[in-house]
Specification:
Hypothetical protein yqbg; single chain; 99 residues; mainly alpha
Length: 99
């Protein structure tokens, strides 16, 4: 599945959310995750640009993990100031803006 194809319903399934009370929050989380992945990797989220986030389907898993952390903790990495190892590994594979 491509990042642009991920819907709120997909996120709710991954997060085991069975109510509609948090749809606004999940919409914000989905938008934030796409922006974070794009900024971290340097890959455009714009589907009219090539390459874009949809070119790398494994980034979708990073989106799900990020969304889970943001939803479950309501803050990213409360205990530490570093990324999840899974997310970090997936994002670093595709980073084009390394210094």
């Amino acid at each position: 599945m491509k990042i642009s194809e991920v819907t709120i319903a997909n996120l709710k399934g991954y997060l085991n959310v069975f109510h509609d009370d948090d749809d606004t929050l999940l919409t914000t989380i989905l938008t934030a995750c796409r922006a974070y992945i794009s900024a971290h990797t340097g890959i455009s989220a714009d589907i009219t640009v090539t390459p874009n986030l949809d070119s790398y389907e494994d980034l979708t898993m990073a989106l799900y993990v990020l969304a889970s952390e943001l939803y479950d903790n309501r803050a990213y990495n409360v205990e530490a100031a570093k990324n999840s190892p899974v997310v970090e590994a997936i994002l670093n594979i595709h980073s084009v803006n390394l210094l």
